[in-house]
Design brief:
By secondary structure, this protein is mostly helical. It has two domains: 1-208, Growth Hormone, Chain: A, CATH 1.20.1250; 212-421, Up-down Bundle (Growth Hormone, Chain: A). 82% of the residues lie in helices and 0% in strands. Helix 12 (293-313) packs antiparallel against helix 15. The chain crosses the membrane at residues 16-37, 49-69, 81-101, 113-142, 154-174, 180-201, 222-255, 267-285, 297-326, 379-403.
Length: 422
């Protein structure tokens, strides 16, 4: 069957191409914004713990209301809900644009500015709780079920491409025009995403249980996720690896104090993992990863841990860039397999709730990992904290391979073939 795979199947649908434009603009803006915030906060405090607090301020609301957000997504029309999410992000970016104005820095203390930034990041966490499940659900309403894996790959590739360009551009824009006007560009991209989104028609609500009690809805969603070995195994493995391998949060320290490469070098370091992941994802449109998915996922996360250790020990800029590039390449394998599992195994009426659980396990682990890295760097030192995280990732892979032979033998070939026949 693999010789009949059309690598451009999803791109033959006009609305899906528009959707990719929306996703690119939003991820570019969001990833650029996070980089600018990291740079500004560390410049204000020179404290690695403050970088961890950024992640904590986003994870608290994102995790607290994630399940409730999934219930809402399954009950509401997806395009209209995504419009509201983007408007919420625009409010946050405009707030950051105002608080980073030079006149604000002259009139208010660094502590006041810092707390305001944390508050806006917290608000962004509320938006994030809804935006992930909404996007995941909307994809399934734009393309036919038989090309879900292909659509998921292109969507993830677009996400990674924006994650490459957003951080890289952020590093250079900080140098060229400063933090304040960098925030203005971020706001402009959120407006662009809205313009694209209005070209997508409203979609039907496929949930047969409209008006279902909230707690019953959440219970059903959790029961489904925890009853699926494939979904639970993939989410757990990736969550723990990201949690302890969160060296990315410490990049401002490496750029400023260890490698001494400034904001331009910071942008390159931050973009390197996404470049690697993008190459992996584009390649996967022609060379699918569903066969022997369990073994491939375990090896990918193991290689990720090795790359993090190399990066942590490196004092050479280009060696650090290569290590981060390779970490992104193998992490791309993990992301593709996880998204394929979610798309193939999740019923249409549960997509919002399953995506919310995914955001708790994986998405929020990035922020929790940032907090863990900040605390570890404060207590152990930056290099030791990064190496420790890489070692914990290796330990996680070994433990998973030993205690879960069923996951190790996971193969998605039959699921893909079944969907091709629909």
């Amino acid at each position: 069957m693999e010789n009949k795979i059309d690598p451009y199947a999803a791109l033959r649908f006009k609305e899906f191409n528009i959707f990719l434009g929306v996703r690119f603009a939003m991820v570019f803006a969001w990833s650029m914004q996070f980089i600018v915030i990291e740079w500004q906060v560390y410049s204000l405090t020179k404290d690695p713990l403050s970088l961890g607090i950024i992640g904590l301020m986003e994870i608290i609301p994102a995790v607290s209301i994630a399940l409730f957000a999934g219930h809402i997504v399954d009950q509401k029309e997806k395009r209209s809900l995504l419009v509201k999410c983007i408007l919420g992000f625009s409010v946050v970016s405009m707030g950051l644009f105002l608080v980073t104005h030079p006149s604000v820095e002259e009139e208010y203390t660094s502590k006041s500015i810092l707390y305001t930034i944390y508050a806006l990041v917290f608000l962004g966490g509320l938006v994030r709780a809804f935006i992930g499940p909404t996007i995941f659900s909307l994809i399934a309403l734009i393309v036919p079920k038989k090309i879900y894996p292909n659509a998921a790959t292109w969507s993830s590739s677009t996400w990674q491409m924006a994650s490459v360009l957003g951080p890289a551009f952020a590093g250079f824009s900080i140098s060229w025009m400063g933090v304040h006007w960098s925030m203005c560009i971020i706001f402009a991209f959120s407006v662009l995403a809205l313009l694209f989104l209005f070209q997508i028609a409203k979609k039907p609500i496929l949930n047969p249980k409209i008006g279902e009690p909230v707690f019953q809805s959440l219970k059903d969603g959790l029961r489904f996720v925890f009853g699926s070995t494939a979904i639970l195994g993939a989410l757990t493995l990736d969550m723990i690896a990201v949690l302890f391998g969160g060296a990315i949060a410490l990049l401002p320290i490496y750029a400023q104090d260890i490698l001494h490469v400034g904001s331009e070098g910071f942008g390159i370091l931050r973009a390197a993992p996404a470049v690697g992941a993008s190459i992996t994802m584009l390649g996967s449109t022609r060379f699918p990863l569903h066969k022997n998915a369990g073994k491939k996922l375990l090896w990918a996360v193991f290689a990720f841990g090795i790359c993090i250790i190399v990066f942590g020990l490196s004092t050479y800029f280009w060696l650090s860039v290569i290590a981060l590039f390779l970490s992104g390449a193998v992490d791309g394998v993990s992301m593709i397999i996880r998204q394929t599992i979610l798309q193939l195994k999740t019923p249409d009426h549960m997509r919002g709730r399953v995506a919310s659980v995914n955001s708790i396990f994986v998405g929020s682990s990035n922020e929790l990992g940032a907090f863990e890295s900040g605390v570890a760097a404060k207590l152990l030192g930056t290099v030791t904290a990064v190496v420790f995280g890489g070692c914990m990732t290796l330990l996680t892979v070994g433990t998973t391979a030993l205690v879960s032979p069923k996951f190790r033998r996971l193969d998605l070939s039959k699921d893909v073939a079944d969907h091709d026949q629909q």
